[in-house]
């Protein structure tokens, strides 16, 4: 399997995205559970079919582009809002980057590391894959200049707090369902979803700045564009209100490009027990 990934990594991004688009639609056609979850989540957000149908192919592209991002040559990356990153870093309070399952979320950390990593490294929360071969492949690729990973446990949280207090950055996917006891129920597109509190706690304990970032997948394999905006308004002190503010911010990003959101993610599932 690793050999296959290495072979795929040399292909042009346009070819990988074409293969991924086909794979996304094949999965949609063959898996009833997958299809129903994707459609249910998109409709929960009030979307008509023309808005969510492109996300079927985009979900396959998300997987197909990984060999190139992990093992291949660097891809073309544009920036929209890089000045917001620079301004946040100059505050020397640390920066919390919040990225939903939108577009290519793998590229946001890589692009940051390439452009800003020498100034302030980024630490991203990372749960190693269960499969041994994938763990051996992914682990080293996510450790690169200006970018490091933190495990999804107490030591990882301490690592992220330490990074923020040193003026560095951390990256999180706040629309990822955390284990039981590590989140609260908060509305997401009008339905309560179990939502992590970690991002809020990091900000409360360090005073870090918060920015929203997502990586738009450009058509025809032309690379990606990383969009960055500051979080507004600032987080309330009340935890439930703060988590709701973050969910609203994630909604606003998804509404900008619903065609590239991972609607198939089980956002409304019951949290698993503590690990």
In short:
The protein is α/β, with parallel strands linked by helices. It is built from 12 helices and 9 strands. The protein has a domain at 76-258.
The tally of beta strands, per DSSP, is 9
| Unreliable runs | none
Structural class of the helices, strands and pairings? alpha/beta
Helix content: 40-55%
Approximately what portion of the residues adopt beta-strand conformation? 15-25%
User: Taking strands numbered 1, 2, ... along the chain, how are they ordered across the largest sheet?
Assistant: 1-9-8-2-5-3-4
Order of helices and strands: HHHHHHEHEHEHEHEEEHEEH
Please tell me how large the radius of gyration is.
Answer: 18 Å
Main β-sheet, in a few words? 7 strands, mixed
Count of alpha/pi helices: 12
Principal-axes geometry comes out as: globular
Distance between the termini: 28 Å
Average pLDDT taken over every residue: 93
3D structure, described in words:
- This protein has helices at residues 2-8, 13-30, 32-44, 49-52, 54-64, 66-71, 82-90, 105-116, 132-141, 154-165, 198-206, 239-256, and strands spanning 77-80, 95-98, 122-126, 147-151, 169-172, 183-188, 191-196, 209-217, 224-230.
- It is of the alpha/beta class and 275 residues long.
- The chain has a domain at 76-258.
- The strands form two sheets. A seven-stranded mixed beta sheet has the order 1-9-8-2-5-3-4, with helices on both faces. A two-stranded antiparallel sheet has the order 6-7.
- The two termini are 28 Å apart.
